[in-house]
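ARCHIVE CARD
CATEGORY: sequence design from structure
SOURCE FIELD: tokenized fold
FIELD CONTENT:
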């Protein structure tokens, strides 16, 4: 949880938190992966981040980006959602982070940090109760949702957990993004009236 928090806390300041924190946690995750192959039961092994925690990129933004593309009232949010829709499928969301922006945006601080922390807890619980098998494969980080969870665990249950995590992240994001969308939409309408 500390690792997930700091990745997103740093990102909120515009610092690539995943690159910085991965230099600390990658040796641990790889050692745990090797131990899992030999029979251990570590959750934090291989790359659980991109398989289960940060689906769509830092902040777990996949489904909220898709919502923005199709349902946002604000032109700005809708266009950013359209630009982000495909990259998010591959865990890339810089258009989202810098286009909205999320960086230094107090309106989106809570879901940006809260959604991935919630997905980490959900994935851990599914592993702890034995529904999700151990992570035994280091899947490529841009592997799309579901497929990444499947490859990491070599099980359909890993794919199911990834999808559940994406839905949990969306539920956390939605009220904040809805409010931000309305706020941005009103600002766009006011600017349109001033320029008319």
């Amino acid at each position: 949880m500390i690792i997930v928090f700091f990745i997103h806390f740093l990102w909120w300041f515009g610092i690539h938190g995943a690159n910085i924190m991965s230099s600390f946690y990658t040796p641990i995750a790889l050692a745990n992966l090797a131990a899992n192959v030999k029979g251990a039961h570590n959750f934090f092994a291989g790359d659980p981040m991109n398989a289960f925690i940060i689906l769509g990129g830092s902040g777990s933004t996949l489904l909220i980006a898709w919502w923005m593309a199709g349902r946002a009232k604000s032109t700005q949010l809708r266009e950013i959602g359209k630009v982000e829709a495909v990259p998010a499928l591959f865990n890339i969301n810089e258009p989202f982070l810098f286009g909205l922006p999320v960086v230094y945006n107090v309106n989106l601080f809570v879901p940006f940090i809260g959604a991935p922390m919630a997905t980490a807890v959900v994935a851990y619980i599914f592993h702890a109760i034995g529904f999700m098998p151990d992570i035994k494969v280091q899947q490529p980080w841009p592997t799309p949702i579901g497929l990444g969870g499947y490859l990491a665990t070599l099980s359909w249950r890993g794919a199911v957990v990834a999808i559940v995590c994406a839905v949990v992240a969306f539920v956390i994001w939605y009220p904040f993004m809805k409010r931000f969308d309305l706020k941005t939409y009103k600002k766009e309408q006011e600017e349109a009236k001033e320029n008319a």
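CARD ANNOTATION: The longest helix spans residues 156-195. The chain has one domain: 2-186.
SHELF: design records, drawer C
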